[in-house]
TrEMBL record:
Its EC number is 4.3.2.7. The keyword Transferase applies. CDD domains: GGCT_like (cd06661). Keywords: Lyase, Transferase. SUPFAM superfamilies: Gamma-glutamyl cyclotransferase-like. It comes from the Bacteria. GO terms for molecular function: glutathione specific gamma-glutamylcyclotransferase activity; transferase activity. InterPro entries: ChaC, GGCT-like, GGCT-like_sf. The keyword Transferase applies. The gene is chaC. One of its GO terms (cellular component) is cytoplasm. GO terms for biological process: glutathione catabolic process. This is glutathione-specific gamma-glutamylcyclotransferase.
């Protein structure tokens, strides 16, 4: 069993992967297109979290995380509890191209564009203002952004929009 990490799963998978390999998912963009009313915001003051948004011609690079044999059921139960808390994500099996040449099918959490928490197309400046102030059950929205940017950079997978957002959010916090 493989899981695709493109946001917080990069730095907080919640399980110890048996293997992790940089991977590419075609047809989806990583973006702050989901409001967070539980983990990184509240219903009164929603935050933003990353999601995979279906976009023709797009691609998202992240990590393919292989689950250890025999741990599939417990990891799946954990991920469902964590990721499906509000039903804004849809669980999908997606085709990944690993940098070592393998092609695998992986579990990924993709945004439901029909869900009330979908907010695709929001300008980056507005995203920055929301992220700078939001806080939820798992902590500050800024922590989520900064950790994701740091881990993408450490993997050599820098994301221009996320890097800009991190700089802007930092400036707003001053």
């Amino acid at each position: 069993m493989w899981v695709f990490g493109y946001g917080s799963l990069l730095w907080k998978p919640g399980f110890t992967p048996a293997e992790q390999v940089v991977a590419r998912l075609s047809g989806y963009a990583r973006s702050f297109c989901m409001t967070s009313i539980h983990h990184r915001g509240t219903e009164a003051e929603p935050g933003l979290v990353l999601a995979l948004d279906a976009v023709r011609g797009a691609a998202c690079t992240g990590l393919a995380l292989r689950v250890s044999e025999g741990e599939e059921d417990s990891v799946l139960a954990y991920l469902r509890e964590r990721e499906l808390v509000s039903s804004a994500y849809v669980e999908r099996h997606v085709p990944l191209q690993l940098t070592d040449g393998r092609d695998v099918s992986a579990l990924a959490y993709v945004i439901d564009p029909g869900h009330v928490q979908y907010c695709g197309g929001m300008p980056l400046e507005e995203q920055a203002r929301i992220i700078a102030r939001a806080h939820g059950g798992m902590g500050a929205n800024t922590e989520y952004l900064f950790n994701t940017v740091q881990h993408l950079d450490s993997l050599g997978l820098g994301d221009d929009d996320l890097t800009w957002l991190a700089g802007r959010v930092e400036a707003l916090g001053r």
